[in-house]
């Protein structure tokens, strides 16, 4: 599953349009290039609507909110919906901050293909207590399980909650993805990069749940591999980009390792 979709990403180099935050921009673009996709960070409303209509997939990430960026998010998400472009909402920091919480709730109404966030963000987006105080989670993945399932069912979307073990649901079926490394929580915008990689898989896979799971498994496997060789957060970043780029495809040992992270016994 994961290995063949990764091969397809590399064959097709899908254009992934990101309306993302100031912190995540370069890292997400590098993660997309490493995995084999083609990134474009475009946020002006006029341009974002043009690009979202022709891109392979779109990411909308609320990490550094501003009113002009919010306009770009609405324009991009609306154009993606109209054109049938798959799109992923990453509601960074939603809960404690008002503008992004309003905007994310409006964006949810535009029908994201996938919603991906940490536990506090997913709790807040679903209107539950337990939201964080900034962009990092203060709740556990399992504490957000009901909120994630409810969001998925109400909005007909796949919801992926990241943490030590990621949880992916379409509201009916739940999968967990292990792997990763504690250093991933000490590098900024790691979740944003996971969202970008997930969008690359959405661009080439018709099965949303399978594509989301495959992307999480590849990030889990490459994160574990990078964590094993990194000395700390600084060397983790280049090690992870290298692991993503060098990850073998169909039939390889890396692909099998990623597969083994999904729903381990
Ligand atoms: N302690 C950990 N052990 C294993 N994997 C982890 C750990 N912490 C984070 N990860 C992994 O790191 C990735 C990002 O998850 P995280 O929950 O940290 O995202 P986030 O809070 O949205 O990040 P950001 O908002 O900074 O981009 C996921 O693939 C997750 O599985
Ligand atoms: C640190 C930070 N602040 C706003 S967005 C962001 C990146 C992690 O989401
Ligand atoms: Mg996040």
TrEMBL record:
Q: Does Magnesium appear among the keywords?
A: yes
Q: SUPFAM superfamilies, alphabetically?
A: Ribokinase-like
Provide this UniProt record's keywords sorted from A to Z.
ATP-binding, Kinase, Magnesium, Metal-binding, Nucleotide-binding, Thiamine biosynthesis, Transferase
The protein's name is: Hydroxyethylthiazole kinase
Looking at the record's lineage, which domain of life comes first?
Bacteria
Specify the pathway: Cofactor biosynthesis; thiamine diphosphate biosynthesis; 4-methyl-5-(2-phosphoethyl)-thiazole from 5-(2-hydroxyethyl)-4-methylthiazole: step 1/1
Q: Which organism is it from?
A: Actinomycetospora straminea
Broadest EC class? transferase
Q: So what family is this one in?
A: Belongs to the Thz kinase family.
Cited HAMAP family: Thz_kinase (MF_00228)
Annotated residues that bind ATP are located at: 116, 162
NCBIfam families membership: PRK09355.1
InterPro entries given in the database record: Hyethyz_kinase, Ribokinase-like
Per the UniProt record, which EC number(s) apply here?
Answer: 2.7.1.50
Cofactor(s) the record lists: Mg(2+)
Q: Does the keyword Isomerase apply?
A: no
Q: Residues that bind substrate, according to the entry?
A: 41, 189
Function noted in UniProt: Catalyzes the phosphorylation of the hydroxyl group of 4-methyl-5-beta-hydroxyethylthiazole (THZ).
- What reaction gets catalysed by this protein? 5-(2-hydroxyethyl)-4-methylthiazole + ATP = 4-methyl-5-(2-phosphooxyethyl)-thiazole + ADP + H(+)
Q: From the record, what ranges are coiled-coil?
A: none
Molecular function (Gene Ontology), one example: kinase activity
């Amino acid at each position: 599953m994961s290995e063949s979709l990764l091969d397809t990403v590399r064959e097709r180099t899908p254009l992934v349009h990101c309306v993302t935050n100031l912190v995540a921009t370069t890292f997400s673009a590098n993660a997309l290039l490493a995995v084999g996709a083609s990134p474009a960070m475009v946020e002006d409303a006029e341009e974002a609507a043009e690009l979202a209509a022709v891109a392979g997939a779109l990411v909308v990430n609320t990490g550094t909110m501003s009113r002009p960026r919010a306009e770009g998010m609405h324009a991009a998400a609306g154009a993606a919906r109209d054109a049938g472009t798959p799109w992923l909402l990453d509601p960074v920091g939603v809960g404690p901050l008002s503008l992004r919480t309003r905007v994310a709730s409006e964006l949810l109404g535009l029908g994201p293909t996938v919603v991906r966030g940490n536990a506090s963000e997913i709790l807040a987006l679903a209107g539950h207590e337990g939201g964080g105080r900034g962009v990092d989670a203060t709740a556990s993945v399992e504490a957000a399980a009901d909120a994630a399932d409810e969001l998925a069912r109400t909005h007909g979307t796949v919801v992926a909650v990241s943490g030590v073990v990621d949880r992916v649901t379409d509201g009916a079926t739940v999968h967990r993805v292990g792997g990763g490394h504690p250093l991933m929580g000490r590098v900024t915008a790691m979740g944003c990069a996971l969202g970008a990689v997930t969008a690359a898989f959405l661009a080439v896979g018709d099965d949303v749940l399978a594509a989301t799971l495959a992307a999480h498994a590849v990030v889990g496997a490459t994160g574990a591999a990078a964590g094993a060789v990194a000395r700390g957060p600084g060397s983790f970043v280049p090690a992870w980009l290298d692991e993503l780029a060098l990850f073998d495809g169909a039939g390889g040992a890396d692909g099998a390792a990623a597969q083994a992270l999904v729903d381990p016994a």
